[in-house]
Amino acid sequence: MDSLKNGEFSFSNDTIKQDLSLLIQALDSSISGIILTDNQQPDNPIIYCNKAFERITGYRRHEIIGHNCRFLQKEDRNQKERLVLRKAVDDGTECVVEMRNYQKNGTLFWNELYMSPIKDERGNVCYFIGVQNDITRRKKAEQELLHQQSVMEAQIQERTRSLRESEDYLSSIVQTVRESLVVLDPGFKVLSVNDHFLKTFKVTKEETEGKLLYELGNGQWDIVQLKELLESILPTNNPVEEFEVEHDFPHIGKKLMLLNAHRIELEGQYKDRILIAIEDITDRRELERRKDDFLSIASHELKTPLTTIKGYVQVMQRLLPETVSDKFKDILRKTGVYVERLNTLISELLDMSRIQTGNIELHKETFDFDRAIHEAVENIQTATKTHQIIIRGQATNSYTGDESHIVQVINNLLSNAIKYAPESGEVQVYLSRVSNYLKVSVSDKGMGIKIEDQKKIFDRFYRVGDIQQRFPGMGIGLYVCDQIIKNHGGTLWVESEPAQGSTFSFTLPLDERKSDEQ
């Protein structure tokens, strides 16, 4: 109940909760994307976004929280509007900009952004609120008005003429491509196929061209996943890439295929056609499976004798007589170090094989997250004399997850920071809480990573070319870390520039229900 006390209104908790719920519903009902960023934390991370922001950008909430707004520009970082935004943040003022942003799938959209500071009672800027609208259609209309109709018609005529002149040349190229190619009309009737399609699926042109795709081979191509691609995904006008389809054909057996599909929108003879490229990856996937099986078996077989060797080395170190030479002690110490390195590598191979087969097990228990991170840092600090590890901030003293796996991620990120920044002498670890997520960042001042390599470093066995020459390794550590974080419902990413160092960050949901939804 509301009551009058000392001349002021006092509101009940129910009223406050009702008002807060109404405010959140209002924000989520807005057609404009709305975000809040925390100016009190390093790099001004996003701490709130409404549903319209997710819809406009194509990202889910767990992929947004904790990031700086710049991630929407991807590689397009040279826009002058970014300087306007940066100055507004530095000055604590409002601004309006129009910027090129990119959705999660890479689609460009124009963003009209209104940004304003939120200040406390002392006038200090604590937060920024950003309201964004997708103005792509307006931008396209403006750009189209800049071209004269006569120029556009001339370009279309020239392109049509060039296509007709090049038809025979392009046809010969298509026939030599080592992928099956199919061209469909808007009604999914086969207009043409290349020779590779005919050889792979053991059919003739007479049995394919002019027939409905789903009816080929007495209904062999009436495939549920293929219908989903053509009737649900492709009409969104986005190209379909790496769409995996598995089907058991009566005459040629089970095939695992990767489909890439594009809707061709040209004038004249080639208007509204659908081009499908089919890559048969059956044999390749089988080779990958055999390789994974070999790694798994080899790792298990090596683990037992290596554990025995490690035990013998430890026994020898404890039983060394006092008269033994320093050289022998040093040799034994180095032996222990290399045995431990080999043990770590085999453990990573085992983790990777479990991940690939879906057998990775998470033993979730509630533990003191901050203390676990501090202990991991202390252990790494004890083992290195070349770098100082500085830890700042707090995340939480109560987190439910697999402590050993989380510590494994921290150890890997710290070891990489030390390994790839041999001249810096300092590594920084920052713990924070962003909305209902905890965030951990590990920063170094090392060699950095090129933008084109940042997309691949979490792939298994991928190693950057110049790094591979200078530092040994197999390229599976970051892959394992990424999978561990994903299995906890979180996100792992990197921000880096060559010669400027790297920052690896990950977020984990504090609400376990959020983890289950991912």
What can you tell me about this protein's structure?
By secondary structure, the chain is α+β, with helices and mostly antiparallel strands. It is built from 18 helices and 19 strands. It has helices spanning 13-29, 51-57, 61-64, 81-91, 136-145, 149-165, 167-176, 195-200, 216-219, 224-233, 282-318, 326-356, 369-383, 403-419, 451-454, 465-470, 477-487, 512-517, and strands at residues 3-5, 8-10, 33-38, 46-49, 95-102, 108-119, 125-134, 180-184, 190-193, 240-249, 253-264, 273-280, 365-367, 388-393, 399-401, 426-434, 437-444, 491-497, 501-509. A 5-stranded antiparallel sheet has the order 4-3-7-6-5, with helices on both faces. The longest helix has 37 residues, at 282-318. The radius of gyration is 29 Å and the shape is globular. The chain starts with a strand and ends with a helix. Mean pLDDT is 81; it is low at 1-9 and 513-518.
